[in-house]
Amino acid sequence: MHTTSYQATSVALERTLTNKFKLNSDMVREDSSASMAVALREALLNMLMHANYYESAHLQAYAKINYYEFINPGKMKIPVEDFFITNKTATRNPIISKLFVQLGKSERAGHGGEKIFESAQINNYKNPSIETNNVETKLKIWNVDYADSFSGKDINDRERSILKSIISTPTHTLGRKEIEKNTGLSKKQSIESINHLIEIGALIKQGKSRSTKYAIPSSPMQVLAQMEAMPQLYRKILGQLMDDRKN
Predict the structure, then answer these.
(1) How far apart are CA 219 and CA 215, in angstroms?
(2) Is the dihedral of CA 163, 166, 168, 172 positive or negative?
(3) 3-state secondary structure the chain
(4) pTM of the entire structure?
(5) Domain region containing 162
(6) Are residues 15 and 75 in the same domain?
(7) Residue 225 in contact with residue 84, Cβ under 8 Å?
(8) How far out from the chain centre does Cα 122 lie?
(9) What's the rounded Cα separation, in Å, for the pair 118 and 230?
(10) For every one of its 247 residues, what pLDDT tens digit does the chain have, with 9 covering 90 and above?
(11) Is residue 232 part of a domain?
């Protein structure tokens, strides 16, 4: 891809982030687009640097309502489970990769996946995912939280409120009574909703009897990636505290 084409695509993707913001606990507007801009840039570079250009299939980048999708021909050179948690790289096109790094367009080689996952943690978005086979590689980056990633056909408003209640906690885990307290749902409503969420794989049950908790499913890869992203999150929180003291 010509440099101007890369720049045009990168600008087009970043324009979709315009006016993206959230309110913190003090109802103060916080810009959530900066880390997403980095994530989208790294996803675009990843697609360009790791594509199999001997295949006839095109490289594709889509900006959907709730997520972005990047598709390139060719199978990944590293295991899928390592993409978001390792700084190791095995690029298919080392000359292209080196060029982008030297031009200052990319983070350190092998850190793109970490930056993409880190953005989701900072913004409390649904975790990104990547899948690959002998034909192509697909990377999906969400710009909504876990609860909003489900369509109205998959879950109803009660079930969505339960998911939002759970993802609002640091551990993404809550007991039934805590869910009822946070959502205002009755015991019957919460049990019916929780059971359906478990049935469709949106929740998992942990523990037994009174110690039963309900949690957001996470793969071992996602757990490791979340642990690696924690230092950056702590630095962000510390920076916000320091800014508050200055003001």
Answers:
(1) 12
(2) negative
(3) CCHHHHHHHHHHHHHCCCCCEEECCCCCEEECHHHHHHHHHHHHHHHHHHCCCCCCCCCEEEECCCEEEEEEECCCCCCHHHCCCCCCCCCCCHHHHHHHHHCCCCCCCCCHHHHHHHHHHHHCCCCCEEEECCCEEEEEEECCCCHHHCCCCCCCHHHHHHHHHHHCCCCCEECHHHHHHHHCCCHHHHHHHHHHHHHCCCCEEECCHHHCEEECCCCHHHHHHHHHHHHHHHHHHHHHHHHHHHC
(4) 0.80
(5) 148-215
(6) yes
(7) yes
(8) 9
(9) 9
(10) 455 678 889 999 999 986 556 655 555 556 668 899 999 999 999 999 999 999 999 999 999 999 999 999 999 988 888 898 866 677 788 888 888 878 777 655 567 888 999 999 888 899 999 999 999 999 999 999 999 999 888 999 999 999 999 999 988 899 999 999 999 999 999 999 999 999 999 999 999 888 999 999 876 555 555 555 555 555 555 555 555 555 5
(11) no
CA–CA separation, 215 vs 162, rounded Å?
11
Q: Take residue 163 and report the two structure tokens written for it.
A: 């998911």
Structural domain ending residue among the three candidates 146, 175, 199: 146
Q: Which residue is it, tokens 């009755």?
A: 186
Task: Find the length of the chain.
Answer: 247
Domain C-terminal end among 146, 165, 197: 146
The count of domains in the chain is 2
